[in-house]
Write the structure tokens for this entry.
Amino acid sequence: MLAWTIYLSFLGALGVLLLPAGAVRAARITALLSAGSGLALALGYALQFKPGPEIHTLVQVPWVRSLGIEYHLAVDGISLTLVLLTGISAVVGVLFSWNVEKRAKEFFALYLTLIGAVYGVFLSFDLFLLFVFYEIAIVPKYFLIAIWGSTRREYGAMKLALYSFLGSALVLIGLIGAYVVSGAHTTNLLGLATHAFSPEFQRWAFPVVFIGFAILAGLWPFHTWAPTGHVAAPTPASMLLAGVIMKLGAYGAFRVAIILFPAGAQMWQGTIGLLAAIGIVYGASVALVQKDFKFVIGYSSVSHMGFVMLGLMTLNAKGLSGAVLQMFSHGIIASLLFGVVGRMIYDRTHTRELTLLEGMRLSKTMPFAAVTFVVAAFASMGLPGFSGFVAELQVLAGAWAAFPKLTLLAGVGVVIGVAFTLRAMQMAFFGEGAATVSEAESAAHPLEPITVPERMGAVVLMGLAVLIGLWPRLLLDWIIPSFDSPLFAALKKGGFH
Amino acid sequence: MMSYLEILRLAAPEGILVLAALAVLGVDVGVTRTEPRASRLFITNALALFGCVVAFIWMLPGGHPGSVGGLFTVTPLTQLVKQALVVLSILTLLLSVETSFSEHLGEYVALVLLATVGMMLVVSAEDTLMIFVALELTSLSLYTLTAFNKSDPQSAEAALKYFLFGSVAAAFALFGLSLLYGATGATALPAIAAKLKGHALSPMVAVALVMIVIGFGFKVAAVPFHLWAPDAYQGAPVPVAALIASGSKVAGFFILAKVMMLGFAGLEGSGSWGRYAPGWIPLLAVLAVASMLLGNLAALAQTNVKRLLAYSAIAHGGYVLLGVMANTPQGVAAVVYYAMTYGLTVIGAFGVVAVVEARTGSCRIADFAGLGKRSPLLAGALLIFLLSLAGIPPLAGFFGKFYVFAAAANGAKELGLLWTVVVALAMSTVSLYYYLKVLKQVYVVAAPDGAGEINISLVTRVVLVVMAVGVVLLGALPDLILGRLVPALAGVVAGH
């Protein structure tokens, strides 16, 4: 049944397109139904999911016989975590795009196509299939940003599309190499993962595939699409980009590069770990000096995704589980932050300049937005009790075992992270500078109140950030047993613990 | 001694098309010349389509394998490729309905059919003489067709360029083939290979090889023999450009692969990184890499969609050459799959271009602004075709690329040819930029003021939808073709 998350999204997209012209409301409702039923399926599956080392196959049929390509969808604890994240982000994204009027049908069709592709990536256990879904996601992203975006949208959209495509080209080089070298006549992940690739091969194949995926995860110095793309994108698309699309990259880097080439991962552990740690500090430092509120969040994503990459490169159970947890946590928090900045603030004040927002006293005019942002900021900074804390702590604990020096560097990043978050929060909501909007003016043009769909979406995300913060075992109990599956056999032989 | 009946039976599909061409000519010139244009259009096309469909159905069972003294060979593989050629010609004819570049309908349709016959003969030819004659039949028909828009000087210029380049290339090919005959005393490809076997690449054979590659390189518009292509694509009537880009490419690549793999078997050399050895593979590697680089980079600078498609066709030619270089049955399967699906896609793209050109008077990229609003169907079809050309799944172009690249990587030992795949993938990324540039006009940019809806005839609408669905289906379910192609190929390989 879980496979239907993919089909329902694509069917929803088709359904939206077939609606009569101008049926904006129907399009919204169709999109919500489609995304909602996807989430319901994911939740339903999660409730009866028994954690363990098994990989639960959903569908497995031959696809291209002469090449040994299969249509193989399956799920383990790691994919389930991310499928759930996708379901949540999809529903919240629809709620936050309730006010889209311009070409609404096309908007929701592209949106749902993107969601379907994301589900597909997380559920694919055939590398060819995974790659297909990964690339299907490129085109909807482009149009979502180019048509509905804001600041330099066409540039941001094209940059994202080309970066994604370049990344997938790198991935494809590695995949074709692995397919040919293994001689196993299969593209199945399980089939290839049990093949011992020679160290010489892994030495080049690992970085090619890993970086190919990590481009989309915002690994420094391949991250430059992320701030421009996030800023240019319309709010729901930024939420998805930061919420799940960046996770596609991290997931691929984990699921494909590390699983297939564990020896290569060990060879490159230090180098890529260093890039990840630099990304954490760099992203946070740049976020500290941004004038545009959305750029702050954009760069914060680079910083927080650095933790995911760092966790992956620890190659130990703690770090890896922390990385997956951080994917979930950052997905929730980034959606929330972009929701507040893009939808609640920008759509109403029409500015994202922190200096302008400083004089608007938003904490008074938009208390709900302020509260939401404060919660999101606390979670993002890693305050205990929020998901960001447990995830980043888990990553740092894993990293301490693997590379103590880099862990210290990442720790510096955490401190800067607190600084930029507090600065942005202070300026945007609790500004004390001269008022840029007079009392009379704001009385004459009161800001549109926060709508019910926005409140619903925000509450769900805030609740999850707290829930995972207080009860991380909820997800860790799915994730950690997955490391006992045959996929990790080779990694374990190399000293995984 | 083979009976004439047997020859007729083997070459029946070609014969049917020749009869159809003669019938079209006879009816149009002799009977309906004075009738109104619409009914002439209907009659000529109906006759031609009838012939095509009959030929197609004739070949459906996979054909009766056989050979006319090595001159003309029929195998399940050739029948499959010929079916594709017939389908591509049908689509070209159907798209011609939208255009009104000529009053000489009978001649036009007959020439399209004759060009198709030429391509089909190319596919079956296994003898250098036959190959040359068949290639010339194709080329001469195409030169004439390119000049068919008599009211447009560009059309004449394009045809002249195409013709001059083409005849020089034909001279090269012929010279190379005669040297090869001098060296081996044989004209049949397997006999040539048998004579060459065991010998190092002698200077004479090397010259012959280079000459032949130049000649064929022209036919498939590989860099540096591509100079005719952009002008021909731009100046030729759009359906003719579509035929040049699709059918003639399918036939051209098929025969190139056949001559190299069959005729020069044993003289492959090596194009592997760091392990160069003289032979035809390194020659093709140079052409392939040059085509991918120049085709994609030059396409970036184009403002006219037809020229953009021309340069992209050059680039795609480069990708296909990778499959030939693989020098394996898998490589041939990849070449055939790629060429077929590319042909389908590019005819579709030209079909959309034809309509836009007919409505707006030109086909600069800017003329596509707001097409998404003006005609959702045209825009949607173009979206599918261009994304397929860019290699986005689940469209046919994506699987084609994957298949070709996998075959190339698999071809040489220790991933020797992977460097060409790296170039190809890097250049694919470049290509996404210019395809998206067109699609941006279609969907993002608003239509100019006063631009109304674009209405298209029912035939064109149906054809475009069928092609778009085809591109999606063949990409999502490659086994629709591979399920027949791979067994057919296995039979041929076992036969040799």
Remarks:
- The CA atoms of residues 42 and 48 of chain A lie 10 Å apart.
- The interface with chain B takes residues 63-67, 128, 131-132, 135-136, 138-139, 142-143, 146-147, 154, 158, 161-162, 165-166, 169-170, 172-173, 176-177, 179-181 of chain A (CB under 8 Å).
